[in-house]
Amino acid sequence: MSEPLLQAVNLECERDERLLFHNLSFSILPGTVTRVEGPNGTGKTTLLRILAGLNDAYAGDLLWCGQARNRQRESFLRNTLYLGHRPGIKPLLTPLENLRALMAARRPVGDDTLLQALAGTGLAGFENVPCRNLSAGQQRRVALARLLIADEPLWLLDEVFTAIDADGVGAIEALLQQRAQEGGAVLVTTHHDLQLPGMNRITLGGAANEC
Amino acid sequence: MNAEFRPLLKPVDQAVGPVAAMVAVFARDVRVAFRQRQDLLNPLLFFVMVVTLFPLGVSPEVAFLKQSGAGILWVAALLSVLLSLDHLFRHDFDDGTLEQLVLQPQPLFLLILAKTLAHWILTGLPLVVLTPVLGIMVHLDGNSIAILCLTLLIGTPVLSLIGSIGAALTLGLRSAGVLLSLLIIPLYIPVLIFGTGTVAAATEGAPVAGYLALMGAFLVLALTLAPFASAAALRVSLSNS
User: Fold this and answer.
1) pLDDT digit string (tens) for A75-108?
2) Where exactly are the transmembrane stretches of this chain (chain B) (predicted)?
């Protein structure tokens, strides 16, 4: 199989004097979906933020394509898509404007493509409504529209199924699977019972009990 | 499994350049600000109110106002910029835009420079535009008003730039307002002293080139150093959230 995109070696994180995880090692290979699981408060979001490069409070090594991640930050950032709890949607802007602004940093995309992506997430007809007038699920969908046009090989998705209806959940599952088949790597945290064939798991929560 | 479906890592020559990314950040901030115009009016209204209330509260005498008018305007402008600083990153922090900004592949200090520039154009620049009107109100003569506008034009970007460091540092805190003022006011004092000093010198007919050169030096210093400090502070604030 091909080289791992992202590798964690002996990752350790402490938060508020509580050991969240230690000796955590894993590799994220292209063409795989990995689910981070564990009860609330075991550090799933913290782990994802560490992997994304938002949180530097960790010990251990992170390798991007076999080399230290922090030495090749630009290559890492250009090839990674992170969607957090708060997905970066401005309530005052319309879905189209939001998507345009988010994509502007990544690659130039025409409005046609953006409109198609919004339609693909079920937001056709809402393109020009300010996001604060949309429901929570619809606001999430604006952020998820990025997944339809994203070409980053590594996706880090935090609680991606929150506030999404049953049809939407099915569509996202299918999208993640298709993404893996295309050669992308996906890391998700979710409490939703995600079952995909060939899915990897990282289970957190064991380490916290030891100390 | 077909990993060869498309080239996995993006070649660098397809990257969005720093300038294009800066323009996008700037455009978004301006657009958001114009969707919420009352937030734009707030610092302006504060500026006008303080300057109007001073003659009423202290003394409406022409001699007093001529002497202290420039100082009043400078202090009011400084406080009004300070008042608007908390908004610089707060909304972006709350809705997650800031996380996405930090994760953009372009250098973060350039993106912050674009944000700070937007902040100055939306708060500092309108203050400079209003200054001639308020200057006439406090009986400043034409030459003093021109110099005052010039010092504010050089000085308010410095206020925004230095303020961005404080705003970034206090981002994760709940009662950020007080700490922000305490951190930033000492750094504002030199700008205030030289800003009002320039106008005082101009009123007495003394040469002002030296003062203006010093203020220009402040601006260059802030422009080159503050975005780096803000970027580092933002990373720390986000790391702790």
Assistant:
1) 999 999 999 988 899 999 999 999 999 999 888 8
2) 40-58, 70-89, 109-133, 145-171, 178-202, 208-234
Give the structural domain span for B43: 18-239
CATH fold of the domain at A1-79+187-211 = Rossmann fold (3.40.50)
Can you tell me the distance from the alpha carbon of A92 to that of A130, in angstroms, rounded to the nearest whole number? 6
Q: Which residues of chain B have pLDDT under 50?
A: 1-6
Partners of residue A34 on adjacent β-strands? A187, A200
Q: Hey, which residues does A6 pair with through a beta bridge?
A: A28, A64
**Domain map (residue ranges) of chain A:** 1-79+187-211
pTM, two decimals, is 0.92
Residue type, B135: G
Farthest-apart Cα atoms in chain A, separation? 54
CA A169, A171, A174, A178 torsion-angle sign: negative
Residue B173 Ramachandran class (φ > 0 left, ψ -120 to 50 alpha, else beta): beta
Amino acid in position B39: D
Chain B interface disruption, residue of A86, A177, A186, most B CBs within 10 A: A86
User: Per the structure, how many domains does chain B have?
Assistant: 1
Q: Which among A6, A29, A47, A92 is the top mutation candidate for probing chain B, defined by the most B β-carbons within 10 Å of its own β-carbon?
A: A92
Please, which residues have CB within 8 angstroms of residue B1's CB and are 6 or more apart in sequence? A31, A180, A181, A183
Interface of A with B in 133-162 (CB under 8 A): 151-153
Residue B6 resides in a domain: no
